[in-house]
Amino acid sequence: MRFTVPTVTLILLMLCSTILRAADDNRQRYSLLQSEPNIGSSIRRDAATGSVIPFDKRYAELSGDQQSYLKSQYEGMGADDEPPFPINGLSPIYKAIAAGQQKLQIKGNMTLAVEVNSQGEATSVSVLQSADPEMTQFAASILMLQKYKAAVCNGTPCTMQFPFRIAFEIR
Question: What is the DSSP string of 71-121?
Fold first, then answer.
């Protein structure tokens, strides 16, 4: 007997709507593979796609261009300032959300903002857009459990939001 499971892909719109730009944008796009292939397959498919930021890198491991791109998503960020960023990179967040998406099968956009204090701890999550209340609560819980590299304002750790945007599709 052959079982088929719909391939679920999270198309990433991380940080702001400008990340998925027009076709003339030359930035490299990164994907995150499933941890395990779908039932009946030996091929691991993309779990998340479309990010201009690698999923497996910490902030310090990002290239200067990638760090500059992240900074450009914030208004008024100075040359010595840095945004908050998940301490273990984006991969643990997206893998957990992909697992939830396999179960919930959501379509639509979700935008959350994580308040990260000067110690790199998530203190709250604001919901700006939600495709599904259950998925939003699940994603907010994942984001709250993460440890972050604190933002830096004028050379000093400070409180700042880490925006998180994602578009869910079922393929």
Answer: HHTSTT--TT-B--EETT-SHHHHHHHHHHHHHH---EEEEEEEEE-TTSB
